[in-house]
Amino acid sequence: MQFDAELLLLAMAPVFLACIGWEAWHLRRTRPGEPIYSWRDTFCNAALALMQQAADKLAWLAIIPVYTFFYQHYRIHTWPASWVSFVVLFIAQDLLYYVFHRCSHRVRWLWAAHVVHHSSERMNFSTAFRQSVMYPIAGMWLFWIPLAVLGFAPKQIVAIVLINLGFQFFVHTQAIGKLGWIEYVFNTPSIHRVHHARNDRYIDRNYAGVLVIWDRLFGSYVDEDPRDAPVYGIVEPLHTYNPLKATFHEWASMGADFASVRGWRDKWRALFAPPAWAADYHARRAASSAVADARSREQSIREQATGQSTVNANHTAAFQTPRRP
Fold first, then answer.
1. Transmembrane segments in this chain: where (predicted)?
2. Which of 80, 196, 222, 255 lies at a CB distance of 3.0 to 4.6 Å from 205, suitable for a disulfide?
């Protein structure tokens, strides 16, 4: 089966925009007062999408020759163009996407790129546009090399990656509830709302791209619980709508941590440990800084008190009647 995924996604652009418009209108009517959409957040998401699309165009120019090399020299099979090969490619890429996505939540180097997608405290269709220009630097493309080894041509690899990501647009919404038996096979809005939440029971769960069977198979699946509504965003909130800060804040934090920790073991952790290590490290530094500030204030108060006592003593002595010898 041959297709041009880029043209397909370009044709879908009006559908994506229509979905955003419908969702904003629908939620304003059905859930008034809830800050599900914000102009600043939506414009930030759009800016991030445009940046990522431009970066991807350049990145594919460098990455496709790598896939071509593995395809020409190491492929173990040659797949003819057919629906069977498409289904095999679809399933294989979706499994590899699960691996990539799970690693992106467990390895800080990958998280530094992926965190952009999670940094909004809102969940709506426009959140799907919230992507990072840094995925090629982080190494997302490495996860698709096995597809070339399996015998899929580079253009097919690019196409299936784009189709997988295009599908995921439709799971970024609060306007659709649970979908029954579908959730045993496919990723859905309810399943993906869990993934974007920072609640203790939800965090680092539901990594599905299109098929949720991988989460169920590898033990990372959690149901959305109506008694525990998802709280969106990241553990260390970003508090900015600047797309450049959203893109690079974790890279800057990672570099600062790498420079400040001592010993190569902790330097390795600063780059490749789970993001929870960084959050814990920052919390410990903040606590140490707070203790130091408290001690400094206490010392300053004591010094002021001591100085005031000395002044008072000198003042009293100056007005005492001198004793005669």
1. 6-25, 80-100, 133-153
2. 222
